[in-house]
């Protein structure tokens, strides 16, 4: 395999809650004014990423994995890329929704579960997001609220700020509000159960399934604290499904794949990736896959902010 930082063609998805934020802020190339999601790296059936650069241009991620699993991922046997990477831009709120955990997703949909996390790339002053319960409630009261259509009254509301991380385990009720650009890291799954859609009537709700997969326990640990030391890997979370680090490069920083791929998701600034006497640019809104076999590489910039993700 030719080893180099791989860029992919973004899969841009129109959404009822989308707008022009993705094109304006992240420079996504589109004529649509309703783009809600940019699938950056995806191995979800029907939405498989294609390479945008180098000798593998136009090859699919799934084909590369089948040909070079060890060199690309670091495992000799793997059926699919284990994480789905997206940017989201919200003009109005998303539906209030919930995702099943691994066990229930296998049982109900023959799919992986969907634990995810969010990084706030940008937020307007009036932006909101909804995550978890605002206090302890009994299950019967919440189930009744699902059925009555007033579940929004039970959700905790956050005023998100640029640079914040939120962890959303499967089973957590949630919705992104308006005015947000989000970097999203999740399991490779597209299973979503909508509970409430803010009066919109053109999309199906999944009340019974949502009731079955919801975690009704009160939690208050969705917002993740982390350090922001420059030119170092600041650990944000190591979960069962992925681990994420925040890196702000203001000079140069040496990296090593250590036998497993790196995903670099640029959430601010621009810079260069140098490897084997070659270099590749990286800028805000881009996501790059560093093959496991590449080994040592370095980042060079005056102010580059990236999320480094492994699974």
Could you give a quick summary of the protein structure above?
The chain is mainly β.
Strand order of the largest sheet: 2-3-6-13-8-11-15
Number of strands: 24
Contiguous helical run count: 6
Cα Rg? 19 Å
Strand content: 35-45%
Report the sheet with the most strands, covering strand number, pairing sense and barrel closure.
7 strands, antiparallel
Task: Spell the H/E element sequence.
Answer: EEHEEEHHEEHEEHEEEEEHEEEEEEEEEE
Parts with pLDDT < 50 across at least 5 consecutive residues: none
- Structural class computed from helices and strand pairing: mainly beta
Molecular structure report:
The protein is globular. The model has no long low-confidence stretch (mean pLDDT 97). It starts with 5 loop residues before the first strand and ends with a strand. Strand 16 and strand 17 (243-249) form a beta hairpin. The strands form six sheets. It has a seven-stranded antiparallel β-sheet. A six-stranded antiparallel β-sheet has the order 1-22-19-24-17-16, with no helix packed on it. Strands 18-23-20-21 form a four-stranded antiparallel β-sheet, with no helix packed on it. Helix content is 14%, strand content 40%. The chain has 311 residues and is mainly β.
Comma- or semicolon-separated keywords:
311 residues; globular; mainly beta; seven-stranded antiparallel sheet; 24 strands
Give me the secondary-structure topology.
Layout: E1 6-7, E2 11-19, H1 21-26, E3 35-41, E4 43-44, E5 47-48, H2 61-67, H3 69-72, E6 83-90, E7 96-98, H4 102-109, E8 116-123, E9 129-133, H5 139-148, E10 155-158, E11 165-168, E12 174-176, E13 180-187, E14 193-196, H6 207-213, E15 223-224, E16 234-238, E17 243-249, E18 252-256, E19 262-268, E20 270-275, E21 278-283, E22 287-290, E23 296-300, E24 304-310
């Amino acid at each position: 395999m030719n080893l180099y930082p791989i860029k992919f063609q973004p899969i841009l998805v129109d959404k009822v809650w989308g707008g022009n934020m993705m094109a304006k802020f992240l420079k996504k190339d589109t004529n649509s004014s309703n783009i809600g999601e940019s699938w950056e790296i995806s191995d979800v059936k029907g939405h498989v990423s294609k390479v945008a650069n180098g000798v593998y241009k136009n090859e699919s991620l799934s084909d590369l994995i089948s040909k070079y699993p060890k060199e690309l991922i670091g495992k000799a046997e793997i059926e699919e890329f284990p994480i789905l990477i997206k940017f989201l831009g919200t003009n109005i709120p998303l539906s209030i929704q919930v995702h099943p955990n691994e066990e229930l997703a296998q049982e109900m949909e023959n799919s992986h579960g969907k634990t995810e996390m969010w990084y706030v790339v940008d937020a307007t002053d009036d932006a909101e997001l909804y995550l978890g319960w605002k206090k302890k409630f009994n299950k019967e009261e919440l189930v009744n609220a699902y059925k009555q259509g007033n579940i929004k009254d039970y959700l905790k509301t956050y005023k998100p700020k640029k640079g914040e991380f939120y962890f959303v385990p499967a089973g957590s009720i949630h919705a992104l509000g308006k005015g947000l650009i989000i970097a999203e890291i999740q399991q490779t799954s597209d299973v979503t159960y909508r509970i409430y859609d803010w009066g919109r009537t053109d999309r199906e709700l999944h009340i019974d399934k949502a009731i079955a997969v919801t975690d009704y326990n009160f939690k208050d640990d969705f917002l993740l604290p982390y350090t922001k030391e420059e030119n170092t890997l600041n650990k944000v979370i190591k979960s069962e499904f992925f681990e994420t680090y925040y890196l702000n490069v203001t000079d140069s920083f040496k990296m090593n794949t250590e036998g497993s791929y790196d995903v670099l998701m640029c959430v601010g600034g621009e810079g260069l990736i140098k490897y084997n006497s070659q270099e590749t640019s990286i800028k805000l809104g881009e996501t790059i896959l560093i093959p496991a076999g590449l080994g040592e590489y370095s980042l060079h910039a005056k102010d580059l902010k990236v999320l480094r993700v492994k699974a």
